[in-house]
Amino acid sequence: MNFARTALLLTGVVALTGCSSTWQYVRLPDPSTELRDASRSRIYVIRAAESESRAHVDVADDKRIVGSTAPGGYLCWERPPGRTVISSRSSRITLSAEPGKTYYLLQTVTRGRLFADSTLKLITPEEGAALLKDRPRPLRCRLNGSLYEESTWMPGALVFTGY
After folding, report:
1. Going residue by residue through the chain (163 aa), what tens digit of pLDDT does each one get?
2. What is d(CA 96, CA 98) in angstroms, rounded to the nearest whole number?
3. How far apart are CA 75 and CA 155, in angstroms?
4. Which domain range does residue 117 map to?
5. Rg (CA), the chain
6. Does residue 43 lie within any of the structural domains?
7. Which residues contact 72 (CB under 8 A, 6 or more apart)?
8. How far apart are CA 153 and CA 129, in angstroms?
9. Strand-pair partners of 102
10. Do residues 64 and 158 make contact, with C-beta atoms less than 8 angstroms apart?
11. Sequence-ordered alpha helix ranges (H) in the chain
12. 105, 123 in Cβ contact below 8 A?
C-alpha cells in the first residue's frame, strides 16, 4: 500500500513540475481589447512553441524585467511611447514605440552550452495575432528581491539595481 501511495505521489509531482507557465511581473492588459490609453504602446513577446529549450527566459524593456517566458507562452504590456530596447538573453531589438501602436516580437529559444539563448524578431500584426490564438495567459506574479526596485514609469515593472 505504501508503494502505491509513493508511486502516485511521485507521478503527481512529476506531472506538476513538467508543466511550464509564463510569468508576467507587470500588469497584463486584456489582450482581447485595444489599448486602453491611446497615448501608450503595447508590446507582445510571443515564445515560439517549437523552441529547443524548455527553460524560462527573462524579457526586459529598457532593463526593466517584464516577465519570464515558457514554451508556447507570451508576455504583453503597455509602455509610454519612445525609443526602447527589448532584450532577452543576448538578443536585443530597438523599437521606436509610437503612441497607439502594437508591436509583436517572436522569441525563439535555443539550447546553449551552459544556458539557453534567445533570439527576438519583429513580426507583422497578422502573424502575431495568428500566433496568439489559443495561447495560455501568463501568470501574474511579483518579485520581491533586494536587487530590484519597482519602476515609476511602468507600474509593477522591476528595475535591476545591482549584482
Report:
1. 554 454 344 334 333 334 468 889 888 898 788 888 899 999 999 999 876 677 889 999 998 999 999 988 999 999 999 999 999 988 999 999 999 999 999 999 988 777 778 999 999 999 999 999 989 889 877 655 433 444 444 555 555 444 3
2. 6
3. 16
4. 21-160
5. 17
6. yes
7. 47, 49, 135, 136
8. 27
9. 42
10. yes
11. 2-18, 125-132
12. yes
Residue 62 maps to which CATH number? 2.60.40
Of 80, 75, 90, the residue nearest 155 (C-alpha) = 80
Integer Cα distance of 18 and 6 in angstroms: 18
Q: Residue 154: inside a domain, yes or no? A: yes
Answer whether 50's CB lies under 8 Å from 43's CB.
no
How many whole angstroms separate alpha carbon 97 and alpha carbon 58?
20
- What is the distance between the alpha carbons of residues 86 and 77, in angstroms, rounded to a whole number? 12
Number of domains in the chain: 1
- Count of positions (residues) in the chain: 163
> What is the C-alpha separation between 7 and 11, in angstroms, rounded?
6
d(CA 64, CA 25): 10
Assigned domain for 14 exists: no
Assess if residue 11 is contained within a domain.
no
